[in-house]
Design a protein that fits this description.
single chain, alpha+beta, 22 helices, 19 strands
C-alpha cells in the first residue's frame, strides 16, 4: 500500500492534470482536425487506396508529434528549472524517483490518450463513409497509432532527460531540437567536408536516407519513406535508455542548480565542444559555398572563425554573460580547437589511403557506372535494384579501372579541381565496384574530359555503359504506351498503344542507344524528339495489385543520329505528325551573340528573353526564305557551357502566332545563311 501511494500519488496526478491537462486536449483537437476530419471531408473522383495514414496530412501529424510532447515536458518539469517551485516540490515527503514517475506518467497519459482516441475515431470514420475518398485497412490505423506513440514518447522523454542537465526551460527546448538535428548536421554537413577535401568521396553516399536520421528532418521524407518497424525499434530503445538516464540524472541533480545553464560540471565540456563543433561545420560549409575561387581555403577560414565563434558562444551560454575572459579561456580554446581539427583532418588525410585506392582487377567481381536510380510510384520514391546496372564484362572492368587509375594519378594536376565554377568539358563519373569479398567500393569524380579522352572513349564505347547510363532496362519491361513529343514545339506529339508498334519502337530505340558512338554521346545537337515510355509497376508487397501511375515513366531522347528509328517513324506515318513544315513559319530572325569569358564559362542556350529584348534595339536580320527556314528546322544546338565562341540566337515566327527559339554556332550556318548574316 505504501509503495502504491508513493508511486501513484493522486495529489500530484490531480495537480498535473488540473494545471497542464489542457495540453492533452489541444493535442487531441489538433490530431482530430488533421486526420479523421480531413479524411471525412475529402473528395475524389476515384477512391484512392493508401497504405499509411501518413499519406493523409502526415506532415502535420509528425509536426505535432515532435512539438507538443516537448511543450508538455517543459510545462510538467518546469518546477525543477525555477528556484521557489524546486524548493517546494523537493520538500514534499516523496522521493525524487516518485516525483519523476508521477510527472512522466502524467505526460504519457496526455500523449497516448489523444493518439489512440484519434486512431479509434479515424477507424470509425472510415467505416461510416458511403463514398470515401481514401480507403485503408485496420493495419494502417494500428501502425499510425504505434508510430505516433513512439515518436511522441521519444520526444517527451528526451526533453525530460535534457532538462536534468539544463537549468533553463528555453535553453532546454532549444537543446532538444539541437540534439535532434545533430545526426543531420554530422551526416550531412560533415559529408560536404569529406566531399570537399577527400578526393573521390561520393557526395550522394547518404543522400537518399539522410532525411530519415533526424525526427525533425523526417518531416520532408514522409511522402516517400513511411516509418517501419526497424526505425520504430530504434526510437523505442532510445526512449527506454533516456528514461533510465532521467532517473539517474535526477537523483544526482542539485536543487540549487535551477536557473543555471548547465547543471552538471561533467556536461559543460560536452556542451562546449558539441556547440563549438556544430558551428565549425556550419561555418565551414557556408564559407565554402560563398567562395569566389578556392573553396578549400575559404572552408578552412570558415572552420577557424566558426571554432572561435562557437567556443565564445558556448562560454557565454554556460556563464550567462558576455564577460567570459579569464586566464584559462585561450588554453581551453586551443585544446578544443586541436580536437576539432583532428576530427576534420584525420578522415581526409592522404596517409589513410582512401584517395589512392584503386582495386585490382582480381578483386573486382563487377562494376557499375552512374549513381543510384529511383522511380516515383504510389506517392513514394523507390530505389531500383542495382544488380541490373552492374556488369562483369572483363573488357568493361578493364576500361573502368584504366580510367580510375589515370584520374587518381593525375589528381594533383587538375587545375580546376574544387573551384565553384563550371568547366566546359567537365564530366562527372561515379564508379561502384562490387568486390569479391562482398564489399562495395564507391568513388565519384568531376574531371575535365579532354584530359582523359581516350579512357572515356574506351569506357563509353561498351554497351554495358550505355545500357546503365541511358536506362535501357525500361525497354526490356512491359510497356503500356509510348508518347513521342517534338523537341521543337511541344504541341506536336503522337502516342503509340498498339502492342506490335510498341515492340518495334522499343527494339529499335534500344538498338540505337546501344549503337551510339562516343562522338554521338558527346554531341551538342538538339534531339529531334523525346519519347516517354509508360510502364506498369507491381508492388513487391502486394504483387497482385498494379499501381497505375502516370508518373512511372522513362524518357529517352530521339537523336538526329537515330536514323533507323526516324525511318521507322516515317514508315508508320508518325514522323509527319512531329515535324514542323517551313510553310508554317512566317519568318526567322537572327541576332549575333559573342561569348568571350576566359576563365569563367558561360551557359549558352536558346534564351527567349535575351532574343526578344535584343530584337527591340540591336541590329538583327530577318528572312522569309523557305529553303533557309527548312535548313533551320533540321538543325539546332542544345545549351552548353563555353569560354568563347560566336553564336546566333534565332526566333522562328509562326504564321499562327507561335514563337520558337533556337540557337546555332557560327560553323553550323549554311552558305545562304552566311551571306545574309555577314553584316551582323
Amino acid at each position: 500500500m505504501t509503495l502504491h501511494r508513493l508511486y501513484f500519488n493522486r495529489g500530484i496526478l490531480y495537480q498535473n492534470f488540473r494545471q497542464h491537462g489542457w495540453l492533452g486536449i489541444v493535442y487531441l483537437l489538433l490530431l482530430l482536425f488533421t486526420l479523421p476530419l480531413y479524411i471525412g471531408t475529402q473528395y475524389r473522383d476515384n477512391t484512392e487506396v493508401i497504405d499509411s495514414l501518413f499519406r493523409a496530412n502526415g506532415e502535420f501529424h509528425w509536426f505535432f508529434a515532435i512539438t507538443v510532447p516537448v511543450v508538455m515536458a517543459l510545462f510538467l518539469f518546469r518546477y525543477i528549472q525555477a528556484g521557489a517551485p524546486a524548493d517546494l516540490y523537493h520538500s514534499l515527503p516523496l522521493q525524487r524517483k516518485h516525483l519523476l514517475t508521477m510527472n512522466m506518467l502524467s505526460g504519457y497519459v496526455m500523449i497516448l490518450v489523444p493518439i489512440w482516441i484519434t486512431a479509434g475515431v479515424t477507424g470509425w470514420v472510415s467505416t461510416v463513409l458511403s463514398e470515401p475518398a481514401l480507403t485503408f485497412d485496420s493495419s494502417a490505423v494500428w501502425m499510425w497509432g504505434v508510430t505516433m506513440s513512439m515518436i511522441s514518447l521519444f520526444m517527451f522523454t528526451m526533453t525530460v532527460a535534457v532538462g536534468m542537465c539544463i537549468g533553463q526551460s528555453i535553453l532546454q527546448g532549444l537543446t532538444v531540437y539541437g540534439i535532434s538535428l545533430i545526426p543531420l548536421i554530422f551526416w550531412g554537413v560533415f559529408a560536404l567536408h569529406l566531399k570537399r577535401y577527400l578526393f573521390g568521396y561520393p557526395d550522394n553516399f547518404f543522400r537518399f536516407k539522410i532525411e530519415t536520421i533526424s525526427p525533425v528532418s523526417r518531416l520532408s521524407s514522409l511522402s516517400y519513406a513511411i516509418p517501419g518497424w526497424g526505425e520504430l525499434g530504434i526510437y523505442a530503445a532510445l526512449t527506454v535508455i533516456l528514461s533510465a538516464l532521467s532517473y539517474l540524472l535526477y537523483r544526482k541533480r542539485h536543487v540549487e542548480s535551477a536557473t543555471q545553464a548547465i547543471t552538471f560540471q561533467i556536461v559543460k565540456p560536452i556542451f562546449r565542444f558539441g556547440f563549438m563543433f556544430t558551428i565549425v561545420l556550419l561555418s565551414g560549409a557556408y564559407f565554402s559555398s560563398i567562395s569566389p575561387g578556392n573553396p578549400e581555403k575559404w572552408g578552412i577560414a570558415g572552420y577557424i572563425l566558426g571554432g572561435i565563434a562557437g567556443y565564445i558562444g558556448a562560454e557565454m551560454i554556460i556563464r550567462k554573460t558576455w564577460l567570459i575572459w579569464s586566464g584559462s579561456l585561450l588554453p581551453r580554446l586551443a585544446v578544443y580547437g586541436i580536437a576539432a581539427g583532428l576530427i576534420l583532418y584525420v578522415p581526409v588525410a592522404d596517409w589513410n589511403g582512401y584517395a589512392a585506392n584503386v582495386p585490382s582487377k582480381d578483386n573486382v567481381e563487377k562494376v557499375r557506372i552512374g549513381e543510384d536510380q529511383f522511380i516515383y510510384v504510389g506517392n513514394q520514391t523507390i530505389k531500383l535494384d542495382d544488380e541490373q546496372f552492374y556488369s562483369n564484362s572483363a573488357g568493361y572492368i578493364d576500361a573502368v579501372l584504366a580510367l580510375h587509375q589515370k584520374i587518381v594519378d593525375a589528381r594533383q594536376t587538375l587545375n580546376d579541381k574544387g573551384k565553384n565554377q563550371i568547366i566546359p568539358d567537365q564530366e562527372s563519373v561515379t564508379i561502384n565496384y562490387k568486390l569479391k569479398n562482398g564489399k562495395i567500393l564507391s568513388r565519384q569524380y568531376t574531371v575535365q574530359e579532354s584530359s582523359f579522352q581516350q579512357e572515356f572513349k574506351n569506357m563509353k564505347s561498351f554497351e554495358d555503359y550505355k545500357a546503365a547510363i541511358y536506362g535501357t532496362y525500361a525497354l526490356d519491361n512491359d510497356v503500356r504506351s509510348i508518347g513521342i513529343r517534338s523537341r521543337l514545339i511541344n504541341d506536336r506529339a503522337v502516342y503509340i498503344s498498339d502492342p506490335q508498334l510498341i515492340r518495334g519502337f522499343k527494339a529499335l530505340l534500344k538498338s540505337e542507344i546501344l549503337d551510339q558512338t562516343y562522338e554521338d554521346q558527346k554531341s551538342h545537337w538538339e534531339s529531334f524528339a523525346s519519347a516517354e515510355v509508360y510502364q506498369d509497376y507491381r508492388d513487391e508487397l502486394s504483387p497482385k495489385r498494379v499501381l497505375d501511375s502516370p508518373n512511372l515513366s522513362s524518357t529517352y531522347e530521339i537523336k538526329p543520329t537515330y536514323t533507323r528509328l526516324i525511318a521507322w517513324l516515317q514508315e508508320n506515318k508518325l514522323y509527319d505528325q512531329l515535324q514542323v513544315s517551313a510553310d508554317e513559319i512566317a519568318s526567322a530572325q537572327f541576332i549575333k551573340q559573342e561569348i568571350d569569358s576566359p576563365g569563367k564559362a558561360k551557359l549558352v542556350y536558346p534564351d527567349s528573353q535575351l532574343i526578344d529584348e535584343t530584337l527591340k534595339g540591336k541590329k538583327k536580320v530577318a528572312t522569309k526564305n523557305k529553303k533557309m527556314i527548312s535548313e533551320l528546322l533540321k538543325r539546332q544546338r542544345s545549351g552548353y557551357y563555353t569560354f568563347q565562341g560566336t553564336f546566333y540566337q534565332i526566333k522562328l515566327n509562326f504564321v499562327k502566332g507561335q514563337n520558337v527559339y533556337m540557337m546555332l554556332k557560327e560553323e553550323d550556318l549554311t552558305e545562304d545563311m552566311r551571306a545574309i548574316l555577314g553584316d551582323l
